[in-house]
Amino acid sequence: MFRSRFFWKLYLAFALVVFVAALTIGLFVGGPLHRDRADRLEASLHYLSESLEPYAIGVFQRGEGAQVDERLRAVAGSTGAKITLIAPSGLVIADSDGGATDLESQLARAEVQQALREGIGRAVHADVQSGAEWVHLARSLSEEGETIGILRVALPLAGADGGGDRVALGLAAGVGIALVIGFFLARGITRPISEMSRTAEDLRNGLYQSRVRSRPNNELGVLAGALDRLGEELTRRIADVTSDEAQLRAMLAGMVEGVVGVDDDDRVVFSNRAARELLSIDRDVEPGTRIWELVRRPELDALIQEARGTDAAARRELVLDHGGREIVLGAQAHSFRAAGTSGVVVVFDDITDLRRLERIRRDLVANVSHELKTPLTSIRGYVETLLDGALADPLNNERFLRKVQDNVMRLNHLVTDLLSLARIEAQEGSLVLVEIDWRSIVTQAARRHEGAARLRGIDLRIEAPAGELRVLGDAESMTQVVDNLVDNAIKYTGEGGIVTLALGKEGERGVLEVRDSGIGIPPEDLERIFERFYRVDKARSRALGGTGLGLSIVKHLAQAMNGHVSVTSNAGRGSAFRVELQLIEPRGELLGHRGPDDAPDGPSGGNLD
Known about the structure:
- By secondary structure, the chain is α+β, with helices and mostly antiparallel strands.
- The protein has five domains: 5-161, Beta-Lactamase; 165-245, no CATH class; 256-350, PAS domain (Beta-Lactamase); 363-423, Signal transduction histidine kinase, dimerisation/phosphotransfer (DHp) domain (Helix Hairpins, Orthogonal Bundle); 428-598, Heat Shock Protein 90 (2-Layer Sandwich), CATH 3.30.565.10.
- The protein contains 14 helices and 17 strands.
- Helix 11 runs parallel beside helix 12.
- The relative contact order is 0.05.
C-alpha cells in the first residue's frame, strides 16, 4: 500500500487541503483576535491611566522624583504595567522600571505627540531589549487649561491573554489530528482500490479465479462486489467459450468436408485435416500463410473474392490433381464478420464420386435408350415390311419373322437382366447366406457351358483342390456369377483358346479365377469394365447377343455375398476375373469373418458383354 502512488497522491492532496484550511482559518481568525486583544489592552490601559491620573497630577504639582519611582514600581508590580511620567518637554520625570534620568526624551514618541494634540495617544512599540511588542497609552495632564505633564502606561501585547496562543496551538493540534485521520481514510480508500486493480489485472492476465479480498461497507465495497461478480461471470463465459471452441475444433477435425478460414489479407486463420488432405497440403499451415501460397488455383482466388463482395454463399467446382488422380471439389465460400474481424470461410466437399455417378446415370439412360431403341427399330422395320406385302413372299417372310424373333429375345434378355440387377441391388444386405460347396457349383457351370465351348473350339478346364471348398454364399447367386463369367470368357476367346476355372484358398478367403486367352481388355477400360452397358468392343458384343449387364450383375452379387470381384488383363493376351468369398472351415466355422464394408475395394465399372 505504501508503495502505491495513488495512496500518496490522495494523502498529500488531503494534507494540502488541511494546511490550506488551517492557513485560511489563521488568516481570518488571527487578525480579529489580535485587534480584539489590542482593544482589550487599550481599555485596561484607559482604566489604569484614569486611576493614576490624580496621583500623577499631584506628582507634577509637587515636583516629586525618586520617591515616585518606588511608588510606580509598586503599582506596576501589581498590574504588570509599565508606568512613565513625562514632562511637556519630553523629559522623563519618573518610570516604574527606574532609571528615569537615563531615558532619552520621549517627545518624539507617537503616543506622546498624539496625547499633546488630542489628550489621549495610543501606539504599539517593540521593546528594545526583548523585542516584545507593548501597547502604550499616553494621557495629557492639564491644570487650568495648561498641560503640566503626560502619564504613559504600557502593557505587553503578547502577555495580555493566551487566546492567540491557544488558537495557534489548537490549529496545530487540529492539523496533526486531521493528518492522522486522513492517513487512515486514504488507506481505507486506496486499499480496496488497489485490491480491485490487482484483481482486474489478474483477470486481464487470465487468472480468472482472482477475487477482491478487502470489501469496505460502502460504495467501494459495492464496486468490489460487482468486480467479483464480473470475474465469476467472466470465468463462466470463458469456460463456455473454451468448451464451445473445443467442441468446434473437434467437429472441424472430425468433418469429412474440408474447412479453411482466411482473413481480409488472404491469410489462413484456421484449417482442418480434411482440408489439408483434399488440397494436398503436405505440411502444417503456419500462422500468417496466405492461401494462394498453399493452393495455386485461380478459381479458388476468384471464389474468395466473390464471397467478399456478397452476403450470399459463392459456389464453384475445382478440379485438382490429388496424388496423380483427378478429383472434383465442390467449394462453397461465405464471408463472416465478428468481434472486429472479418474474412471468408471456404468449405470443400469431394464430389468426385458424385460426378462419376452422375456420368454413369447419364450413360445408363443413354445406353438403356439405345439398347431398347435398336431392337425396337428393327422389329418395327421388319413388321412394316411384312405388312406391306412381304408376308406373302415365301422366300423372305420366314427370314423376317426370325429376325423379329431374335430382336424380341434380345429385348427379353435385356429386360430380364435389368430386372435381375434391380432385384440384386434391392436385396443387398438382406441376402440369406449359407454354407455352399463352391466346387460343386463350378463343376455344374462347366458342364452347362461345355457344349458352347466345344462348338467354338475352346478348351474348358477346371483347376481345383481335392475335396469340397465350402464358402459362405447363396447358391443361386453363386451360380449366376459363375455362369456370367464363363459365358463372357467363351464369347471373347477365339477358336483354339483356353478357358480355365481355378478354385483355391488364400488365407481366410475362397477364390475363383476365370481365366481366358481371348482378346483381353485395354488398360484404360479396366476401371469401367463393371459399369452397366459398358462394352470394350460394342459391335462384337451385340453380335454375340450380350446385353452389357453381365459383369455389373456379377459385381453386385459378389458384394451381396460379402465378397469381392476384380479383374486383371493384358490386351490381346486374355483376362482373369477373380471372385473372393468368405471361407468356411470343414467343421463349419467362418475364418476371420468380415462384413461387406471390410471387403477390399476393386475396380468398379463396365462390362465385356
